[in-house]
UniProtKB/TrEMBL annotation:
Residues 1-25 are annotated as: Disordered. This is Phosphatidate cytidylyltransferase. The chain crosses the membrane at residues 30-48, 54-71, 83-108, 128-147, 156-174, 194-213, 220-240, 267-284. InterPro entries: PC_trans. Belongs to the CDS family. It comes from the Bacteria.
Length: 287
């Protein structure tokens, strides 16, 4: 069984990693990046602050967008049976998680991913992309909802998560463009450098330390280490999506955010970091 389908043709006539032309316009430029960030960051902070139904609604909407781009990326067409199965699963999982039923939400995610895979099975090139998408896209949404509702600190933990991911991305971008140097993984992402990665890690660690100190989370040194770990998870998530896009010959997952590409391009690091922070907080609660 293949993890992803063969883009653009039957399995017996085309290699699995044959690039296809990107049908989406390239979105780059510092001005567009800054303008987009100037709109999105205040809105995100506002939603994080109030939490509740507004936060859950935004998480649900972003997850649907992610599923849309994921389906287009790995299948080459948006509205497949697997897309509908994952979208319904995301809505159900977010609804359950918003109500505090996190274990049930995870079970629904597993069930929906399997159901989506079964629905896709009659296709000429069956694969397991809906099940992979369920874990990749919906589980982080549940983690983000759980973190926001952690007693006595959920708002601050969620703020720390977003700030570290944003800071790691911006730090890596700024340091990498300024210093340049050896490439990190040139075959996967030719623009990423070791200097940028180090800049991202340091930015994440410093920002986590500052948020912890201002928010009186205690042990700010430990939070600096956690910030570095979250920044590393964000970088790994970015690289993982870069590998996925390279496999399918696509530059951007979409064009929703000028200067940033698609929703998946913007949230690739967040997906990994959200799950990692949820695990760390759980371990801390049970330790």
């Amino acid at each position: 069984m293949r993890l992803y389908p063969t883009p653009g043709g039957p399995i017996d006539t085309q290699l699995p990693h044959t690039p296809r032309k990107n049908r989406l316009p390239s979105t780059s430029g510092l001005g567009a990046r800054l303008a987009t960030a100037g709109v999105l960051i205040p809105l995100a902070l506002l939603v994080i602050w109030f939490g509740g139904k507004a936060y859950a609604a935004v998480i649900a909407a972003m997850t649907i967008f992610l599923i849309f781009e994921w389906t287009r990326l790995v299948v080459g067409a948006e509205f497949q049976r697997g897309f509908y199965a994952l979208s319904i699963t995301a809505i159900v999982a977010v609804f359950l998680a918003a109500g505090g039923h996190y274990a049930t939400a995870l079970f629904a995610t597993l069930t929906g991913g399997i159901a989506g895979t079964i629905l896709e099975w009659p296709r000429r090139n069956p694969d397991s992309w809906p099940a992979v998408g369920a874990g990749y896209l919906i589980v982080p949404a549940i983690a983000a909802l759980w973190l926001r509702e952690v007693p006595e600190g959920g708002r601050l933990l969620t703020l720390l998560l977003f700030v570290v991911v944003w800071g790691a991305d911006s730090g890596a971008y700024a340091v990498g463009r300024t210093l340049g140097g050896p490439k990190l993984i040139p075959k996967v992402s030719p623009n990423k450098t070791w200097s940028g990665a180090i800049g991202g890690l340091l930015s994440g660690a410093i920002l986590a330390m500052l948020v912890a100190a201002v928010g009186q989370l205690g042990h700010w040194g430990a939070w600096a280490l956690i910030g570095g770990a979250l920044a590393l998870a964000s970088i790994v998530g970015d690289i993982a999506e870069s590998q996925l896009k390279r496999s399918y010959g696509v530059k951007d997952s979409g064009s929703a955010f000028p200067g940033h590409g698609g929703v998946l391009d913007r949230l690739d690091g967040f997906l990994f970091a959200a799950v990692l922070l949820a695990i760390l907080v759980l371990l801390g609660q049970n330790g």
